Amino acid sequence: MKRILLIKVTSLGDMVHTLPLLHDLRRAYPGAKIDWAVDASCADIPRWAVGVDRVIAPPLRQFKKNGRKWHDLRGILSAVRQLRRERYDVAIDVHGVMKSAIVARLARTPRRLGYAAEFLGESKAVFAYTQIYGPHGDANCRQKMRMVVANALGYEIEPHETPELRVPPPATPLHTDGVPRATLFHATSLDIKKWPQANWVEIGHTLARRGYRVELPWGSPKEQAEAQALAAAIPNAEVLPRMSITECAQRVDASSLVVGMDTGFVHLADALGKPTVMLFTATSRPHFGVDRPGQAVSVGDNGAPPSVDEVLSAIDSVTRASVDKATLHEPHGLGIHAQQQGG
């Protein structure tokens, strides 16, 4: 296997979900070149991913949103030319909609892998594939993706997930005051996914008492207003400015704790190894949740929002572990408390 095309077009969370598969492919085929086809709006994470040789990023979403402007069409045609310049041994579509299937069909390859029609986001996408993935199995979304591709290509996977990426450092270092930051991703795409504002205030107050400064990101005017209301009720909380994906990722990377809903940036926090608590209210925790003992934990489920106490207990589990890890790395085996006592 010399050249592989990986196709996952959107969105931010799905980019993170695909990182363990990328690691598997790099491990199974260490000499292969791996290209990733992705919508331009979500291309940051593939560009930061360890093991990607080339990112092909047509502005598909922008073309539709902007009223099909000629500038965006030129960008799509340029990406198609990039795609067609290479001959691939296999194109792997792990998205399963028409636009990802069209990318697979345009690729110069005799072998195009995709899901069976009943598992596709758009069943007609099956037209593009020469080989159908095997059964999903009983696992979360990341493991299913890993298993079906491994079965199709004939390699073994490790039991644990390994997401690898490097977020570029900010131009100016963050948090030079030494105060730990807790980033709360309170906003969601749908109101049904929200967790009550009053609950976020309780969490914020507890974190403030523990010495954290709470940071509140947002992505729309409505979310900004919600963040401002939270900041008014949480001591020393900060509403962050409008940020690009890169700037928000840098904030996540600089955080000491990330708590938030089932959103892309909270998945990113988990992939970056940050102490992470993910909340579920209207999506499936077993399917999308994060679970790395001592580092990342998910609480709640579809139709069963977590209580404040459950979230605080989850925060305890991941922050206690991070303190324990720091203690192990201190000189002469001295813990934080012992050093403070010794002055």
From TrEMBL:
It is a peripheral membrane protein. One of its GO terms (biological process) is lipopolysaccharide core region biosynthetic process. Pathway: Bacterial outer membrane biogenesis; LPS core biosynthesis. It catalyses: an alpha-Kdo-(2->4)-alpha-Kdo-(2->6)-lipid A + ADP-L-glycero-beta-D-manno-heptose = an L-alpha-D-Hep-(1->5)-[alpha-Kdo-(2->4)]-alpha-Kdo-(2->6)-lipid A + ADP + H(+). The keyword Membrane applies. Its EC number is 2.4.99.23. One of its GO terms (molecular function) is ADP-heptose-lipopolysaccharide heptosyltransferase activity. InterPro entries: Glyco_trans_9, LipoPS_heptosylTferase-I, LPS_LOS_Heptosyltrfase. It is an enzyme of class 2 (transferase). Keywords: Cell inner membrane, Cell membrane, Glycosyltransferase, Lipopolysaccharide biosynthesis, Membrane, Transferase. GO terms for cellular component: cytosol; plasma membrane. The keyword Glycosyltransferase applies. Its main location: membrane. Pfam families: Glyco_transf_9 (PF01075). It is found in: Cell inner membrane. Belongs to the glycosyltransferase 9 family. This is Lipopolysaccharide heptosyltransferase 1. The lineage of its organism: Bacteria, Pseudomonadati, Pseudomonadota, Betaproteobacteria, Burkholderiales.
